[in-house]
Amino acid sequence: xxxxxxxxxxxxxxxxxxxxxxxxxxxxxxxxxxxxxxxxxxxxxxxxxxxxxxxxxxxxxxxxxxxxxxxxxxxxxxxxxxxxxxxxxxxxxxxxxxxxxxxxxxxxxxxxxxxxxxxxxxxxxxxxxxxxxxxxxxxxxxxxxxxxxxxxxxxxxxxxxxxxxxxxxxxxxxxxxxxxxxxxxxxxxxxxxxxxxxxxxxxxxxxxxxxxxxxxxxxxxxxxxxxxxxxxxxxxxxxxxxxxxxxxxxxxxxxxxxxxxxxxxxxxxxxxxxxxxxxxxxxxxxxxxxxxxxxxxxxxxxxxxxxxxxxxxxxxxxxxxxxxxxxxxxxxxxxxxxxxxxxxxxxxxxxxxxxxxxxxxxxxxxxxxxxxxxxxxxxxxxxxxxxxxxxxxxxxxxxxxxxxxxxxxxxxxxxxxxxxxxxxxxxxxxxxxxxxxxxxxxxxxxxxxxxxxxxxxxxxxxxxxxxxxxxxxxxxxxxxxxxxxxxxxxxxxxxxxxxxxxxxxxxxxxxxxxxxxxxxxxxxxxxxxxxxxxxxxxxxxxxxxxxxxxxxxxxxxxxxxxxxxxxxxxxxxxxxxxxxxxxxxxxxxxxxxxxxxxxxxxxxxxxxxxxxxxxxxxxxxxxxxxxxxxxxxxxxxxxxxxxxxxxxxxxxxxxxxxxxxxxxxxxxxxxxxxxxxxxxxxxxxxxxxxxxxxxxxxxxxxxxxxxxxxxxxxxxxxxxxxxxxxxxxxxxxxxxxxxxxxxxxxxxxxxxxxxxxxxxxxxxxxxxxxxxxxxxxxxxxxxxxxxxxxxxxxxxxxxxxxxxxxxxxxxxxxxxxxxxxxxxxxxxxxxxxxxxxxxxxxxxxxxxxxxxxxxxxxxxxxxxxxxxxxxxxxxxxxxxxxxxxxxxxxxxxxxxxxxxxxxxxxxxxxxx
Length: 912
Ligand SMILES: [Zn+2]
What we know:
Elements: H1 2-15, H2 19-22, H3 55-59, H4 70-80, E1 86-93, E2 99-105, H5 108-112, H6 114-124, H7 133-142, E3 145-151, H8 159-173, H9 177-185, E4 186-191, H10 196-209, H11 248-260, E5 264-270, E6 275-284, H12 290-311, E7 315-323, H13 331-335, E8 339-345, E9 354-356, E10 362-364, H14 365-385, H15 387-407, E11 412-415, H16 421-433, E12 439-441, E13 445-452, E14 457-463, E15 468-471, H17 477-484, H18 492-507, H19 527-530, E16 536-538, E17 546-548, E18 566-569, H20 574-586, E19 591-593, E20 597-599, E21 602-604, E22 608-612, H21 619-631, E23 636-638, E24 655-657, E25 663-667, H22 673-686, E26 691-695, E27 709-712, H23 717-737, E28 741-745, H24 748-752, H25 771-777, E29 794-800, E30 814-819, E31 832-836, E32 843-845, H26 853-857, E33 861-868, E34 871-876, H27 890-899
Parallel strand pairs: 3-4, 3-5, 5-8, 6-7, 25-26, 25-27, 27-28, 28-34
Antiparallel strand pairs: 1-2, 2-4, 9-10, 11-15, 11-16, 12-15, 12-17, 13-14, 13-16, 18-22, 18-23, 19-22, 19-24, 20-21, 29-30, 29-31, 29-32, 31-33, 33-34
The structure holds zinc ion.
Zinc ion is lined by residues 154, 157, 239, 269.
Organism: Synoicihabitans lomoniglobus
Cofactor: Zn(2+)
């Protein structure tokens, strides 16, 4: 079997065989001529050090015949680590305990003074330091340029790490003058595998199932649900994570990046039809120094082009890879002062070991590796050639950031601890992980005027001691502004092009396919809105006394004194939810007051947790003290049930027992992997909530009575319907009516409103049975769109209904909501619309389509509870917890899990 595989791949790799010549496609009518493509020679630069074994010797096969498993890769790394041109730095481990590294490669001479190089680099990056021209000249004269080469962030774009092995060997073993000269001028920081867990899932699968068949329909091109090598352990796309940096791989790589602060960064992906490298497409993040960025992308792009032209290889630039969203591994490095670039190779990964192009020539994994290898070396060569000029512009990046911060219309952002200090600290930690300098105030300060993130101006706001302040006049000002500005401007030319497409699409015939829009990702990522954290923008910097912070430490919380009646905890914080879940899980009895209540003269909001002494064992006192300290949550003490005012106290009729949640999460085929993954991460890492993942098609055949919560992550409504079948649907419906809580997220909501389930009265806006939209259709000539256009991740204003348990802990009237789809839902006529979009003034940040999005979404529902029998069907039109970055509605999801199982017949009537 193995011999067969080797033979097939060897032939295809070596000769770029024609389909007809192999006899595999006998039906091909016309004989085609043999192409000229020759196998790439990885050893063309001259002599190599004999002591260092070549990759094929270490691996036991030619790279490209199979994928290197992570263990094999680590052995390669260990062997080359003995070279005097290499230093290996561990950066941490993945969720599945695979070690991660960055590898510094340079001349032995440079490696001996690596600490000095690093220190000089940081000195250049200190935009506040007033360096004389002479001092800058002196620093730059001796300073190598630092080039970051990242590989395989998407694990199934698996040519990456294979190429890293080739590049590593070339740099450590080559005795050619060219390579040695590069290493005198360049320190390469290689991140050889940015996603070891995802890559390993893919590699094991591809080695097992890859026969080397080139047919596009071959099984080996499918990458099934449980492989999904693109993502990390939690099915996160690591090339979107650099805003929250929630994932451990992002933190490992991000910290190393900030330590080395490279001038050039190339992130190696695959597989496009032909190789891609910059210049990038529009839009370009407006916080990037535009002139310098475009100039350098052009220089590096032309450097790669020359190397590819020499081989006669195809490639393209611009097209659709933009540099707008701030959390990619090209835009984020660029905001940090580097020339940040994405490279996409053609071949390998999901295209398999061999892939049939549309002209019936074959694209191979080996050629994909050769192209990444060539682009990596060309990047090093270009960096070496432009070392001095690039270093000067690198310094200018940080100097201009300080200057821009002093002059811009957003000079400071003030972030008080707010209603959930834990979440506020999480936001500040994320800023710190992007290298943003944050201060904390040491005295009360007053802001003469400031604007919150809902656009409300206020005068004379007092900020307490301990408020976090981000001053934009700092070396990392470009990053700070990219993460904190209220809305990010998109290039006019880009927007005009999308709107023209919209008009063309509207005028097209029914059967003519629509022209795709070019939004590559979400168009808003404003962190205070995403985290739902109180924050204030200040136009003209305010003086204050404060300290620059390092690590963000949570203040410790004391255990409560011993209560005689009950312990009481306010809702609205992650800590409160965690504490309640822990107590319930351990068997303690926890209740909630569904109205605001009076506890010994102290007011507690609706949804407060009541843990009564008489209903619990004496171990409660010690346990709640431990949990209060662990979750850093203040626990109140009630020594009497008597209320000083109002109608509700710890002993009143409006107090109901909660039930420990037993949670099932649907998974596997039909479910969007990243939606399931975000829940996995949220439950396991953030809330410590146990759950049972169950395949969708198993849901119909198991006894659901073991659970009181079922979550359907975002997924294809069609697949949900088909995989569940009639049995699954009726099983779920019976279970809900008997008291179960079914939670549908995003696209899964569309499945729930499928007419034949009869679960809810809401409808999809623009659907055939949406009467309002139909009325629009009847208007005649210039009818407006009845169907929503896809919203590329914009933040919208919603109105909070305080009459429901889902909004416990949300005492504000407005809440930001992430809209990232083309599916809007009419308000429910039978249940509770807990979050609803207002009729106007809806957009907070990001792109919405003129005369479409806001008109169609106004008055529709974002979060709905449909009471069914004794249970609930809770619908979220978009995903809470999206990318572990969208926090604003996450507690609402947790409210559903914590409160709904206990409040089966007690849905509403909880006004403040
Ligand atoms: Zn990729």
